[in-house]
Write a structure and sequence with these properties.
953 residues; alpha/beta; Glycerol-3-phosphate (1)-acyltransferase; Arc Repressor Mutant, subunit A; 9-stranded mixed beta sheet; 37 helices; 25 strands; globular
Length: 953
């Protein structure tokens, strides 16, 4: 069983208190910039503040934040749910506020307190114990109170006997002071050390004002116990009680307005009565989460010098805001029923206008057009069900343990620090259908509400589609062009999700990558998300890139068929059922999920839309800066996904073995190449979020054999390891996963493939000139100058490793590789091979352009001719990687040439160019050998020849 993850906490400033002007005085732009917490604005609307409220507390913090884990040990270990939870002790967190919050390592949970408890607690606690299983966050909350100057008083969101029993048990298990022992002097007057902000009977029994939805005048807006505690501090200057907010969740289901089943099973946004709480514990008590926040000094609050009434109201408001934000992060926003949400979408102005336009276009009645819109809405909308999600989590736990050797998760705690108060949009890479299930499962088991997931309508199969929809999926068509009504319904639905605080997940690539590379992003869903925010800019939006890395793909064989020209098989229930036995009997290795650097929409708007004033943008208005903002955001998402890549054993095997003609080599050579690949990543870090397998080369080889990726051939002179046939083609997928991490080393190695000597200045000059094309294809994070600096650092590393040597100081230094076929030359050739075919593609495009001349080919024609030339080159030479003749890669190269003005479109829509393209082609001679260049020039087709129809006798 894996060890429990180490978790810590560091102080974070409280959200600002609302001003007397109320929420109307808060500009939306301020909310999006993060200057005002939207949860505070929401709370202020419910409880107006007194005039001239002072600034927020400066020494308090409520957000628990786990410390970042150190690298994992190499031994695989699967914890509960198939999740590998191995983490080493984290580095200490730096305190940000005057009140220090100690950081701590992964100490084991303290032994339960042995202090004698009241008889009624022992009796009732014993009755409840079989029904309740606690998950305490963070893992060692006793560290919060170890060095505090005063006694501890716990703050609950609401009173209740079950809450008191759960709190007492959690404190006992965590080694914290008991909440049932009175504070010194008993300032609460209740012979206990906890208080709550509200009572259940106020919310459930007291009628609401039917017009405003607010509690009756008799309902208190703050706790009398809290007021007494503050007053005791004024009377006794030596008293300094530490308030510790504690959130208790019995189950984590979002609330729904209909359905008794979800009410019984779920934690929700309503303070329920005693009977419903009893049923919730009986049915869902084993999924109880207790979350402790860092302590707050009451003495520090009193010393602000505010009047007593304003102090208690302000502290109550800030505590309620804290509980609101934690509840939203753990169980998600307050859900409406699917029917109600659909009715709201169809009643919006934009959809009603689209319905009228559809009726006029079809020359039909409004009722018929409305029925069509209604059908679209029900086809799209999710129908989230916590019972289905919870049941799926149990099922998937068994599946993961059966087919995977573990699921590693990195940087999740960093994400959990940033998420409160934000509308989160998860944007993972798309490698497999398992992506949907993995991410939702991980979030659910880690205490985060699963997102609403955008899924292709092709997955809306009988039974399967219903289950996915119950799990939070909403279905969209691959193309919505030509259907203004469908587009309006979808846009309005997404806008309601964004405005309502629902987390969303979609794949910006549009579909699964068949080659292992990140596909060029599609901006449709991103545009809908941004426009949804601009319509109601009240809740800041955060895009969370996620990298998912596999060692073996379930869809590997189908990808292979598609890459060899076969049509994609249509998804069906029968296909799914037939594939289950094979999947459950296979070993797919390990999966790694890395959370990348989040992207705040406010930052992107500040950079690309400086003229936006923060006010809502109407649905029918499209700002000029919107397209550029969406494109930049899409590109940034892919860049940040790549910056969170994981390098697993299969990636390293693929990099080495695919560089040889027969995809095989001796075991000692393979060990040396894997060691070199690991050294490059360690000495030239790509990003602080990139993770690398800690296994040794020998362990990596053994793992490759275990999951049937490598074949070992015994030989008296030494064993030979390799891959053959279809496995070699599939292995290119895993090489492409991490190709971007080796861009700088591969470029330098390519420079010395056909040149024994070259100046450092020439290597850097050529590297800067080719970098824009590599950046566009591989989503690299550096500027041109930064890439030049990285090339310089790589050269220094190559010299230290003996791959290159300095032979002269001229031109900034002349570099040389060894002559002949030495080990160093072999290693250089291996490193450079991964980028070699990219440069061959570039030269094909230039050669085809030059052969046809300026003003002859359009972009589409050039793309088609390049595709044919690459196919022919692959037939004449060794078989190339499947993506070598991918039209989309040629399309991207042509687009980048147009951006750089190497080519441009004339009045007839044809591409034209000047001598600069010839100079660029001349530079390509440095990288490509003479024979290969001659072959490319010879096979490059001309437009008239390729357009001629075939003749026959």
């Amino acid at each position: 069983m894996a060890a429990r993850p180490a978790e810590g906490a560091r102080a974070r400033p409280l959200a600002p208190a609302p001003t007397a002007a109320g929420p109307a005085a808060v500009e939306p732009a301020a909310v999006e910039r993060g200057a005002v917490d939207p949860a505070v604005v929401e709370q202020a609307a419910l409880e107006p503040a007194a005039a001239e409220d002072p600034p927020p507390l400066a020494t308090t913090a409520f957000e628990p934040a786990a410390l970042e884990p150190a690298p994992l040990d190499p031994a695989p270990s699967i914890g509960p749910g198939g999740i590998d939870t191995r983490q080493a002790s984290p580095a200490p967190a730096q305190p940000e506020l005057p009140m220090p919050t100690p950081a701590f390592a992964a100490d084991p949970r303290p032994a339960p307190s042995t202090a004698r408890r009241p008889w009624w607690v022992r009796l009732l606690g014993g009755l409840m114990a079989p029904w309740v299983e606690l998950k305490i966050e963070p893992g060692a909350p006793a560290q919060y109170t170890a060095s505090l100057p005063g006694p501890v008083c716990y703050v609950l969101e609401d009173y209740g006997l079950s809450n008191a029993l759960v709190l007492e048990r959690a404190c006992r298990e965590a080694g914290l002071p008991s909440p049932l022992q009175p504070l010194p002097g008993d300032p609460l007057g209740r012979k206990r050390a906890y208080l709550a902000l509200s009572r259940r009977n106020v919310s459930t029994l007291a009628p609401l004002n039917t017009l405003t939805g607010s509690p009756p005048p008799s309902a208190k807006t703050h706790s009398e116990s809290l007021a007494r505690l503050l007053e005791a501090h004024r009377e006794h200057p030596e008293l300094d009680v530490q308030l510790v907010p504690v959130s208790i969740f019995v189950g984590r289901a979002p609330d729904k307005d209909s359905g008794w089943f979800s009410v019984l099973f779920s934690e929700n946004w309503t303070i329920v009565g005693r009977f419903r709480r009893l049923l919730a514990i009986a049915l869902n008590g084993r999924d109880t989460t207790v979350r402790f926040a860092p302590p707050v000094s009451v003495r520090g609050i009193i010393e602000e010098g505010l009047p007593p009434e304003r102090t208690v109201r302000k502290l109550s408001r800030v505590l309620r805001t804290h509980f609101h934000r934690i509840r939203a992060a753990v169980i998600g926003p307050d859900l409406s029923t699917r029917r109600l949400l659909i009715d709201t979408v169809l009643a919006s102005d934009s959809v009603k206008e689209a319905i009228a336009d559809q009726a006029a276009r079809d020359k039909s009645s409004l009722a018929d057009a409305y029925k069509k819109a209604h059908t679209f809405a029900y086809e799209i909308a999710a129908d989230y069900s916590h019972p289905v999600v919870r049941s799926a989590s149990f099922l998937l736990t068994t599946v993961w343990n059966r087919i995977y050797r573990g699921v590693l998760v990195h940087h999740l705690e960093k994400f959990k620090q940033d998420v409160p108060g934000f509308e989160v949009v998860y944007v993972p890479c798309h490698r497999s259908h398992m992506d949907y299930l993995l991410l939702s499962y991980l979030l659910y088991t880690k205490g985060i509400v699963p997102p609403h997931i955008v899924a292709g309508v092709n997955l809306n199969l009988p039974i399967v589609g219903t289950l996915l929809r119950k799990g939070g999926a909403f279905f969209i068509r691959r193309s919505i062009r030509g259907s203004m009504l469908y587009s309006a319904v979808l846009s309005e639905y997404v806008a309601h999700l964004v405005a309502g605080g629902y987390s969303i997940e979609y794949f910006t690539e549009g579909g699964r990558s068949r080659t292992g590379r990140l596909l060029q992003p599609k901006g449709g869903m991103i545009s809908m998300t941004v426009r949804g925010f601009l319509r109601q800019p009240t809740r800041p939006v955060l895009f969370q890139p996620v990298y998912i890395g596999y060692e073996k793909l379930m869809e590997g064989n189908s990808y292979l068929d598609e890459l060899t020209g076969k049509a994609k098989a249509k998804e069906s229930v029968w296909q799914l059922l037939m594939g289950i036995p094979k999947v459950l009997s296979s070993n797919y290795g390990q999966v790694v999920v890395n959370f990348g650097e989040p992207i705040r929409l406010s930052d992107m708007l500040a950079q690309h839309a400086p003229t936006w004033d923060g006010l809502p943008v109407p649905e029918d208005e499209k700002p000029k800066w919107l397209s550029d903002t969406v494109d930049a955001l899409a590109d940034k998402i892919n860049v940040n996904i790549n910056r969170a890549a994981d390098v697993n054993p299969i990636n390293l095997l693929a990099l080495s073995l695919l560089s040889t003609p027969k995809h095989a080599m001796g075991e000692s050579d393979l060990v040396e190449l894997i060691t070199l690949s690991q050294t490059l990543l360690a000495q030239l870090p790509y990003s602080d979020r990139v993770t690398v397998t800690p296994h040794t080369p020998e362990q990596i080889i053994a793992h490759g054999e275990e999951i049937n990726v490598l074949t070992r051939t015994r030989h008296p002179l030494g064993d030979v390891l390799g891959v053959d046939g279809d496995k070699a083609v599939l292995l290119t997928y895993f090489r492409n996963n991490v190709l971007h991490l080796y861009t700088a080393p591969a470029w330098i190695a390519c420079c010395f493939q056909h040149n024994r000597r070259m100046s450092r200045a020439r290597v850097l000059e050529l590297g800067r000139s080719v970098y824009p094309f590599l950046q566009a294809e591989l989503f690299l994070p550096w500027t041109t100058e930064e890439f030049g600096q990285r090339l310089g650092d790589t050269i220094d590393l190559f010299v230290r490793e003996g791959l290159l040597e300095w032979i002269s100081d001229e031109e900034g230094g002349i570099l040389a590789r060894n002559a002949g076929q030495s080990d160093e030359v072999f290693r250089l050739r291996t490193i450079g091979h991964s980028l070699q075919q990219a440069f061959e593609r570039y030269y094909i495009a230039i050669s085809v352009l030059a052969k046809n001349g300026p003003g002859t080919l359009s972009s589409g024609e050039l793309e088609s001719l390049c595709h044919l030339a690459a196919q022919r080159l692959s037939l004449l030479y060794a078989p190339a990687a499947p993506e070598f003749f991918d039209k989309s890669l040629f399309r991207g190269f042509i687009q980048k040439m147009r951006e750089l003005r190497l080519v441009w479109v004339d009045a007839n829509g044809k591409l034209t160019f000047d001598q600069r393209l010839s100079a660029w082609a001349k530079d390509a001679k440095v990288i490509l050998g003479r024979e290969l260049r001659h072959t490319i020039e010879k096979i490059s087709p001309e437009s008239t020849r390729s357009a001629s129809p075939p003749t026959g006798g």
